[in-house]
Amino acid sequence: MKLFRFFIILLLLNSCSFDNKSGIWKNENNISDEENQIFKEFKSISYAKKKFNKIINLDKNFKFNKSKTILNLSWQDIFYSNDNNFVNFNYDNQNKLIFKSKRLTKNITSKHILFDENNLISSDKKGNIIIFSINENKELVKFNFYKKKFKKIQKKLNYIIENNIIYISDNLGFVYSFDYKKNKILWAKNYKIPFRSNIKISNNKIILANQNNTLHFLDKKNGEILKTVPTEESLFKKYFRNNLAFYKDKVVFLNTYGSLYVLNIKSMKIDWFINLNQSLDINPSNIFTSNQLIIYENKIFVPTNDNFYIVDILTGSTVIKKNFTSLFKPIILNNILYTIDNSLLIATELKTGETIFSYNINQKISDYLDVQRKKVNFRGFMPVENKIFIFLKNSFVLKFNANGNLDQISKLPEKIHSNLIIIDGSIIYLNRKNKVAIVN
Fold first, then answer.
1. Nearest 10 degrees: CA dihedral of 394, 397, 403, 405?
2. Which helix (H) or strand (E) holds 5?
3. pLDDT given for residue 5 in this prediction
4. Residue 250 belongs to a domain with what CATH number?
């Protein structure tokens, strides 16, 4: 039996490309994206309190629930949904490359891709909006809004889709709407100050924020300002961006100063706000960082550089505060909160607020492969088939059970450049050559 097990391990190490030579431990330092930059800011902070760094083993009697998987067919918001929360995605899990396109552009592309009516939407640093048809395997539209005087300026576009119309803001202060089916600009406005947030849409309103932490409510039909809400401005412009989420008639706004606002969408008035910046030196130049907040069952989940907050959306009271954060947007699966911090996969039961397990991901990989422990470089994670899929920068995928056990390690057939989305049971992303890759 021992001899048989030895040969199985040997086979895995040699044929499945999980050993040291394959690069699973390799940190790809040539990649410089926003997650890396945010994490650098996390490390530069001097913490007054000791950060969470414990291994907690799961109680053997703890029972996990399972939920139905969702066959997702569109991705119209860069953070997936109004509340920024993921669903339990359906995935075929064959890890086979079933489609690869030609190169979409020679320019550096945005990490954010969208998917609408079997069309992939991307953008590049030149300001091109690229619409690629998966069904027809061809580029349908490549549209550029900008005049020659902006040619040398690198464009950073934020976008969202609704009813074939892409609403776009940029780092030049423009906001415009583009009907990609008609290949036509519907309206465009220049508000002079660069925009630094995701975009949300509610009925006739577009909601977004600029780099000065001013929240804008715009008329969706023409881009005219309905109302602006100034909030505290940060003197230093960081990689952390303002972010927004919706819940029913509420919009939640986290600014770069560290203040969390909840506003009524209809009246466009502030319900309440609190400051989550825990520095002893609260001033406009203080560094505050966070990742995307999410909303789940009347609660706002906010990972900051110091702590993880769960806040009641109706009252603004802090329900739970943890001394860990999340390197990426947090995941909620069957009432369990999952975060990644300090190479730990941490699970917290929402009902009790107790951390039910905390495991070192690098150690889990080491134990799975039976090799010496090193460090991996994380790209992101999401809930898939009642599991936690952790994506690495070098295109490996770690598939953890909900209970924190590492079930499988695989490698995607193409190297990852963009964020990954899951559509119709398949993973879709742009590879390093800006080609669309679809893996089922």
1. -80
2. helix 2-15
3. 47
4. 2.130.10.10
Show the 3-state SS of 118-151: CEEEEEECCCEEEEEECCCCEEEEEEECCCHHHC
Number of domains in the chain: 1
β-pairing verdict for 97-103 and 435-439: antiparallel
Cβ count within 10 A of residue 404: 20
2: amino acid identity, one letter:
K
Q: Tokens 């490996």 — which residue?
A: 396
What is the residue range of 394's domain? 2-439
DSSP 423: E
- Look up residue 414 and give its DSSP letter: S
User: DSSP labels for 26-50?
Assistant: ---TT---HHHHHHHHHHHS--SSP
User: How far is 257 from 246, CA to CA, in rounded Å?
Assistant: 20
391-425, pLDDT tens digit by residue?
999 999 999 999 999 999 999 999 999 999 999 99
Per-residue pLDDT tens over the stretch 376-398: 999 999 999 999 999 999 999 99
Average pLDDT score, the chain: 90
Give the separation between CA 380 and CA 73, rounded to whole angstroms: 21
**d(Cα 360, Cα 222) in Å, to the nearest integer?**
51
Give the residues across from 243 on adjacent strands.
Answer: 254
How many C-beta neighbours within 10 Å does residue 410 have? Answer: 17
